[in-house]
Amino acid sequence: MNLPEHEPDPNLWDRIEARIQADATLNRAIEQLPEYEPDASLWERVEAELSDAKVVQIGRGATRSLGTVSWLAGAVAAMLVLAGGWLYLNQNSADERVTVAYSVEQVKTQATDLPQPQAESVRRDEAFIVRHCAEQKPVCQKPEVHELRSQLVELKQEQARLGKEIALFGADPALVRAQTKLESQRAEITRELVTLLQS
Amino acid sequence: MKNLFVHIVLIAGIMAGVRGRVNAQTVQVVTKVVERTIACPDGLTQRISINARKADVQVRGWNRGVVGIRLRLVAKHTDRAVAEREVGYHQYTLQANGTVIELSNGFVIPQRAGKLQSQLKAVYEISIPNRALLTVNNSFGDVNLRDLAGETTVTFEYGKLNMNELTGKLTIKSEYGDVEGQSVNTTLVCRAEKADIILRDLGGTNRIQSRYGKLYIFPDAGTMDALVVTAERTEVALLPKNLDDFSYDLTAIKTQLYQPHATTDFWTRKNDSELLNYSPPGKKPRLQITSKYGPLHLMLFTKTDVPLGSK
């Protein structure tokens, strides 16, 4: 089947070129536009006007007329938002491109706690170390024991620091992995220390 | 010896991502993507400085005189409105500032917002001139470096540093952060605390310090120049393919030294140390390791011996 042939309008390229030139001119002009800061007292004035206006509740089935002052305040606010958005986009457009993407994904959540038996055994071992060092001080003053105990203190401090991060960011996978790593380090050093004290 | 193999497989498995019991959940993901290129004509007069926080950082070298940046700022939450609001808590800087190209991210959480609800993460995908000067700082995220031949410094805590095909100068400082390298042939200075380190086909000149960690080194006979390791309370394994490719100066202080049968005649004990000095005929790269309080293993490695993680 033969489709009908069409010739483009002879002025088409001229029109496209003119449009490109117009865009370029506009972009150059935008770059040369002066920047303005809003008056420092603007918000106070807007707030004052807003507080003077009637409070209007917009809800389902409620249609009420807005006062002139409210309309003006709304218009000013809308203009500010648009101007802010334009300035923000224009500031980035020179050599930075910002886009926002949306998606849905399945994330894997991990258990944040150690298996209870291991955590319990670590606590038990730590209690043993404290008791043993209270009873036999010279043993715990040996450099090897002292070094390991210092490491345990350091690990506890690190766990406290990590706890603050988790309080801020939640049980994020990277933080949970860090927590698991610290727990295993603590368990390993505790075990080594107990072995050393028992030998 | 078998135990060590099991251990290496376990560590490699953990480092490859086998990280325990998991459950699945559907979340809304809002990603702000920032793309930018910054001129970096010769890659030598400007330092590229990446200060990342809670970020995955991927840097690869290319043969162009620009730095290409794609920064993804991600917020995940079951409620899209929450993710949309909290993606705005990400802050970033991507700018050239004199002789430094600064790339950084952080978080500003307004006090009135209360506790953060979304999972926030930043992901850098950066291409740089392959001979560039690069500095990376990161915490709680992974750093991936590939095809770099300049001067690279990485300081990080937690997460993992992955390296592939690197030459030039490399400095690593890690606390609680693991390191895995493949074909790293650099002048390397590495200081690691509480880190698990695996270096495969390691070449170049290497000075490594490790405390409270694990260190597995597979030296490459073709590219290795020298290796000096000082380890404390670290399990160290040196795994050459052929024993006679290198000369060995191994010292295990207050710990045990494990070795193949072929070198037992070169083993001695002095006070609380075990020593192994073995030099095959000819001039061979020298591998020197001192390990204190952590076992030191010398064993032959062939790829059929141990299925190492993802490799």
Core attributes:
A: 7 helices, 68% helix, B: 311 residues, mainly beta, 2 domains, 22-stranded mixed sheet, 22 strands
SSE topology:
The complex is a heterodimer of chains A (about 200) and B (about 300).
Chain A: H1 12-32, H2 42-52, H3 68-93, E1 96-110, H4 116-135, H5 137-140, H6 143-169, H7 173-198
Helix pairs in contact in A: 2-3, 4-7, 6-7
Chain B: H1 2-15, E1 22-39, E2 47-51, E3 55-62, E4 66-77, H2 80-86, E5 90-97, E6 100-107, E7 119-129, E8 133-139, E9 143-148, E10 151-157, E11 160-166, E12 169-175, E13 178-193, E14 196-211, E15 214-232, E16 235-238, E17 247-253, E18 257-258, E19 267-270, E20 273-278, E21 286-292, E22 296-298
Categorize the overall geometry of chain A. rod-shaped
Strand content of chain B: over 45%
Broad structural category of chain A: mainly alpha
Count of extended strands of chain A? 1
Average the pLDDT over all residues of chain B and give the rounded result.
91
Number of strands of chain B: 22
Describe the largest sheet of chain B: 22 strands, mixed
Major sheet details of chain A? none
Give the N-terminus to C-terminus distance of chain A in angstroms.
95 Å
Rg estimate of chain A, integer Å:
34 Å
Structure classification of chain B: mainly beta
Could you characterize what this model shows?
The complex is a heterodimer of chains A (199) and B (311). Chain A has 199 residues and is mainly α. Among the domains of chain A are: 40-59 and 66-94, no CATH class; 116-198, no CATH class. Chain A has helices at residues 12-32, 42-52, 68-93, 116-135, 137-140, 143-169, 173-198, and one strand at residues 96-110. With 311 residues, chain B is mainly β. Chain B has two domains: 27-149, no CATH class; 159-304, no CATH class. Chain B is built from two helices and 22 strands. Chain B has helices at residues 2-15, 80-86; strands at 22-39, 47-51, 55-62, 66-77, 90-97, 100-107, 119-129, 133-139, 143-148, 151-157, 160-166, 169-175, 178-193, 196-211, 214-232, 235-238, 247-253, 257-258, 267-270, 273-278, 286-292, 296-298. Chain B has a 22-stranded mixed sheet that branches. In chain B, a hairpin with a 2-residue loop joins strand 5 (90-97) and strand 6. Chain A binds chain B through residues 95-111, 144, 151, 158, 165, 167-170, 172-175, 177-178, 180-182, 185, 189, 192, and chain B through 19-38, 54, 76, 80, 87, 94, 109, 115-117, 119-121, 140-141, 158-159, 176, 194, 212, 233, 293.
